[in-house]
Amino acid sequence: MSDDRRIHLFDSTLRDGAQTQGVDFTVSDKTAIAEALDRLGVSYIEGGWPGANPTDDAFFAEPPELKAASLVAFGMTRRPGRSAENDPGLSGLVNAKAPVACIVGKTWDFHVDLALEISHEENLAMIADSIAQLGRSKREVMFDAEHFFDGFKANKAFALACLRAASEAGAAWLVLCDTNGGTLPDDVRAIVAEVRETLPEVRIGIHAHDDTGNAVANSLAAVAAGARQIQGTLNGLGERCGNANLISLVGSLALKTTWDCGIDAERLRLLTPTSRLLDERLNRTPTRGAPYVGESAFAHKGGLHVSAVAKDPRTYEHVPPETVGNRRHVVVSDQAGRANVLTRLQEVGVEVDPKDPKVGRLIEEVKRREYEGYAYDGAEASFELMARRLLDQVPDYFSLNRFRVMDDRRWNARGELVTESEATVTLTIGSDQLMTVANGNGPVDALDKAVRKALIPRYPVLERVRLLDYKVRILTPQDGTEAVTRVMIESGVDRERWTTVGVSPNIIDASFNALYDALSWKLHNAGVEAPKG
Asked: What is its EC number (predicted)?
């Protein structure tokens, strides 16, 4: 396919998405999401704004090793009255461990006059100086033309002059931003086309916000008019109403057009898992009606629809659900369930004969557990263990006899109110029974330490395993304090990470279930042999 048909996908979830109300990424979150985007096959991953906050600083200090995508550091043009060489914001970008930089600058004269209170000539110089400075240390520099569509309508000559200044200074991409999300597709298409005609030598991108619900449509309209980069976020995350939903854009570009977005059929099947990974990291319930990836995207109720789909799915499905990693939900859907489970087994490396009767039992077990509240889309390690146990492919490394957790809230000798947790655990390893006691910062920490205290002498490989993240979701809020809870635990060693799940009306019990899977998965993954009883 010719380069003119190539669309470069730029994900800004870790920066734009972090501006969403209620979203607060940890460094671990950012790393996991970046690695998932890299597997999906996007061209650029914007990691954040170096110097803006400690989380972004820590992320860029030790960024993930990306195999396909380019890591991008975001920032802004130099400040008025400063040289590019002495601007602290630009210095942060220069020093960031990212081969690509993207800077935002004003292109609407209204903002230059009102917010910056500088001359138009100074604004142009800020753009050019900043890009030239970054170009000395970065493989690529991009310019985000803030409020470009409003600026173009208000003062076309100035908006275009800003683009020329960026291009002449060496910007590899000029990204036209609909920053307040108020432009409609017809205007986007017309303005992008005029920019292409006026500046035929530059490469253009589109960055659309969703304040009118048109961010995806605006992005596709820009592509039709000549844009060759699309900026967006997973699940449309972003401030106010969000950004262009990169998940929807990938599905539409790959399956509905002849554009080449760099994502082949194999990677396209990661679309649903990638979308749901983000929701699990944010401890949010996935949007059931989300295009392509929602639980209801390929759901069919009883009656004529089910009958028609059984004869030919194309009657009510615009694409086969498995092409985007999703699945069909219909009455008596054993075949769909079997295919889905077999695919997931293949993804986690579990080899099984599709005709093995145990596959049927596994399908029923998955259905039963999901009904109870288990969610395996974001807990691949627990799914793999459940499957291997039913298929007799994983041993029991240890078993729990009992545990007891106590919290002691009291005033200490200094007159300070403190709460201490103590866990007592009795485990069986092979033919040996062990009892350990440990204190911790909370009941889960105490339980984790007590279990490890018993296991590490027998299984030294667990010494470096760390609990990286812990999330709780209330599954039955109508039950109040008796509600069923789901606990997700992310564990890791160096750059290796895995997630497990536990469900129970008792949060400590749910936590132990997830912890048990986390340690068992590591032992199996490391090839450790279980002791004989």
From this structure: 2.3.3.21
